[in-house]
Design brief:
alpha+beta, five-stranded antiparallel β-sheet, 14 helices, 17 strands, rod-shaped
Length: 565
């Protein structure tokens, strides 16, 4: 508004300058025309008197035209023919009897006219005088046109315009500020932190400010109530571990707690007002939200966001547009269910194989199809498969026991001694496979479950023996690394391909199942190792290269934290 008033005042000033220049030019033109005609009349009377007394009129006119080059002298005879003209040859000029000033001079003795001259090519003023012999003396003088006068006065008008603009600009600003000051004060008083709107200097503003006062009080009360509700909602949602998101009818975020940001890996920054579909890139998230809002029926689904599995519940509001999105971390439940299914499938498969062999060989002996040496051979196969089945059952039971917290007291366990006992246990198996095993390192003791440490070292060294080649080596090294005791198992065996290294610690996972059958492995050894390390709050890492051997490093705290807390 302030800018519009200022522009209006400047435009009015500019228009006033232009109108003043135009009217001044018109007035100057009229005044110039009257002065030119009076001057021409006075000159004509003097020249007429001199012409009547001159012995040779034409010579007099010729001499006079040289002294007054701006004055056009014309002598017209009684028939209208041009006898003399100071601006053009007389013999080539047309008859002037019908000229307005000539006609008037013959009738009244004097005539005058202003018109555009074909001879001079511009506007001219004419005065004509009738002589005693019937001839007519005509005087002519050119004059500037109205346009010429206007453009002639334009520099002055421009100077005046600049002067007026220089004066009008500060005056306009001052007037605008005076006019707008009450309005600006009223606008500033709209802020809730400032004083209430006072009495306006203009009576016309009173209804406007009354409305502002009422709306100001209403808005302040609404904002206060909304802020209280928002604080209450934030206090409730910030204290829950589940992700909670409130959306409006357009699926834009009204509120989003910190847990939802972390679980959904939502974008950083302020999320309020943004589309809820931007919170999670998983298409299942957008599908659940869209379907719930369009059908007005609750929806639920399971999402995988990074390493987490989230159970998502989308519930539309019943009495208002919008809804609620609840994200619950169900990673443990989903993974437990998956492990249960995998474990059941793997156990069924592993148990079925030896049982099938036992059943088949027993049936051959029972029916008498295998006798003598064959029966003895089949009995040996039955014993072998039964032993394999016993190993599998023992490993499963041991793994279950470790997951439940293990049995036995925690004590100070000498790691190097435990490693040497594992080497003694596996000495016969290593000799059969032509693999050299040995132990080395520092005499370190840790607070641990002694039976678990025995199983840890046996399983680590056993893998180095089973998956080695004749003439190979497998060894255990015990050393201190900071506040941790390191149990390092190395071998020169077949190694583990890179694509399998992330899964070898899973239950029943085998890199080469056919070789596992030959070596008698159950696929649970490294899984047991992993659970023992986790029980002792340690760390586990693997380095391996196919065809060059494997190195497994176990880091265990030298002193366990207080387990009674």
């Amino acid at each position: 508004m302030k800018k519009s008033i200022l522009q209006s005042l400047i435009c009015v000033s500019a228009l006033a300058v232009l109108l003043t220049a135009a009217l001044s030019a018109l007035g100057f033109y009229r005044l110039h025309e009257e002065q030119a005609q009076r001057q021409l009349q006075n000159q004509g009377r003097l020249i007429l008197a001199g012409l009547d007394s001159a012995p040779r009129p034409l010579d007099y006119l010729d001499a006079l035209s040289r002294t007054a080059p701006d004055l056009r002298l014309t002598l017209i005879d009684s028939g209208g023919g041009v006898v003399f003209d100071s601006s053009a040859p007389a013999d080539g000029m047309e008859n002037h009897e019908t000229r307005q000033e000539v006609v008037q001079a013959r009738r009244e003795g004097f005539g005058e006219c202003a018109r555009r001259s074909d001879t001079l090519g511009e506007t001219a003023y004419y005065s004509a005088y009738l002589r005693q012999d019937g001839s007519v003396l005509r005087l002519g003088a050119t004059a500037q046109s109205l346009t010429a006068v206007f453009f002639g006065s334009l520099p002055w008008a421009a100077a005046i315009g600049l002067l007026m603009a220089g004066l009008a600009l500060p005056i306009s600003r001052w007037v605008t500020r005076r006019l707008m000051a009450p309005v600006m004060e009223a606008a500033q008083s709209l802020s809730l932190e400032e004083a209430p709107v006072g009495k306006p200097p203009y009576q016309e503003l009173e209804p406007f400010l009354d409305k502002i006062r009422a709306q100001k009080a209403q808005i302040a009360a609404s904002i206060h109530r909304i802020q209280q509700e928002k604080n209450t909602l934030s206090m409730i949602t910030s204290g829950v571990r589940e992700g909670l998101i409130l959306i409006d009818g357009n699926k834009n975020v009204l509120s989003c707690n910190q847990a939802a940001r972390e679980l959904l890996q939502a974008p950083t920054g302020d999320l309020e007002g943004r589309s809820a579909l931007e919170l999670c890139p998983d298409p299942a998230f957008a599908q659940a939200v869209n379907q719930a809002m369009s059908s007005r029926q609750p929806q639920q689904t399971v999402l995988q966001v990074g390493p987490l599995y989230l159970r998502l519940y989308v519930s539309p509001a019943k009495s208002a547009p919008g809804g609620m999105i609840l994200a619950v971390d169900s990673s443990q439940q989903v993974q437990a269910e998956r492990q249960r299914r995998d474990f059941s499938a793997n156990v069924s498969h592993e148990l079925k194989t030896p049982l099938t062999s036992i059943s088949g060989f027993a049936e051959l002996i029972e029916t008498g199809m295998a006798r003598g040496q064959d029966a003895a051979q089949f009995a040996g196969r039955i014993r072998l498969e039964a032993g394999r089945l016993q190993f599998l059952i023992d490993d499963i039971m041991r793994l279950s026991e470790i997951e439940d917290g293990g049995k036995g007291e925690w004590e100070q366990v000498p790691l190097l001694k435990t490693a040497r006992q594992a080497a003694d246990t596996l000495a016969l198996e290593a000799a059969e496979k032509e693999v050299s095993i040995f132990c080395q390192g520092e005499e370190l003791e840790i607070e641990a479950n002694g039976r678990m440490m025995e199983e840890l070292t046996v399983n680590l060294l056993s893998n180095g023996v089973k998956y080695n080649r004749p003439g190979g080596f497998a060894w255990l090294t015990i050393e201190r690394q900071g506040e941790m005791a390191a149990v390092i198992a190395e071998d020169t065996g077949i190694g583990i391909p890179l694509q399998h290294q992330d899964r070898v610690f899973e239950r029943f996972y085998r890199v080469d199942k056919s070789r596992s059958k030959q070596t008698g492995g159950t696929g649970l050894g490294l899984s047991i190792v992993r659970h023992i390390v986790e029980t002792h709050q340690g760390f586990l890492s693997l380095e391996s290269e196919e065809g060059k051997g494997t190195k497994i490093t176990v880091l265990l705290p030298l002193k366990q934290p207080d387990r009674s807390k």
